[in-house]
Amino acid sequence: MASDHKSDPKIRETMNVHQYFPTEVYTFENKELVDPVVAALNPIERGQFNIPFTVQTTKGNLHILPEFKELTDWIHSCLREIKVEQKFEMWGDFEISLMWGVCSPPHSGGCHQLHRHPLSYWSGTYVLQEGYPTMFQDPVYARSHNQLEIISSEYENALPAPKHTPGTLIIFPSWLLHFTIPHQGDDWRANISFNTFPTGAINGGPFGQNMLNVKLVQDDSTDGFVQGEEAHDIASKRTSSPGYG
Ligand SMILES: [Fe+2]
After folding, report:
1. I want to staple 47 with a disulfide (CB 3.0 to 4.6 A). Which of 85, 139, 185, 238 is the partner?
2. pTM higher than 0.90, yes or no?
3. Distance 123 CA to ligand 1 centre (A)
4. Could you give the C-alpha distances from 140 to 96, 113, 175, 238, 244, in angstroms and in order?
5. 7 C-alpha to center of ligand 1: Å?
6. Contact criterion met (CB below 8 Å) for 79 and 169
7. What are 172-183's pLDDT values in tens digits?
8. How far apart are CA 170 and CA 167, in angstroms?
9. CA 118 to ligand 1 center in whole angstroms
10. Residue 164: other Cβ atoms inside 10 A
């Protein structure tokens, strides 16, 4: 056995590394939609709902507003490509179930703490402005629990989105934990984020019966789900700040 601690080329050429259980994060590009989407987003009311209450967020109904139709249609087309790529047994599409704007003013420290997106299959974000990228946490968290952890000069516990420039759409599995670094840029940081759900016939079963047939109700009426004095009190305490310059 070599004792000089150096790599042996003969041994090295027989070594293979196998990436098991990779996580797919997709990106698509469309710069033409950036300006019209910023113009559509600008007048929409925003509130501060996420700890530490630095990011401004719109209602999650942008996907059913006509001024966002072009963006919504394009995201649906991108989701269809992912469905084909994954060879999923489903005969409908991934539909956006919730879509909202997120804006951080310049030097605001606007950020999202580590989170995932419940009740979503793929989630995503469309980048409108320069700013700190969305950060994804290593989902193989068990390796960072190793009691004999040897620090690698290469391994990163969290990675930035593969690309994060205006016009980039990033789509990731909703279970993948992610966060943003406090925004201290000179300009606004703005994104359109969304959740999706599979619709139509899903998963073939015996005698041709699918395991699930899904139809989403696309309705932004709050009558059905905001109820009671408590919900009203919470809503009334939120500050809102329309227009982001
Ligand atoms: Fe998120």
Report:
1. 238
2. no
3. 8
4. 28, 19, 12, 36, 38
5. 42
6. no
7. 999 999 999 899
8. 10
9. 10
10. 18
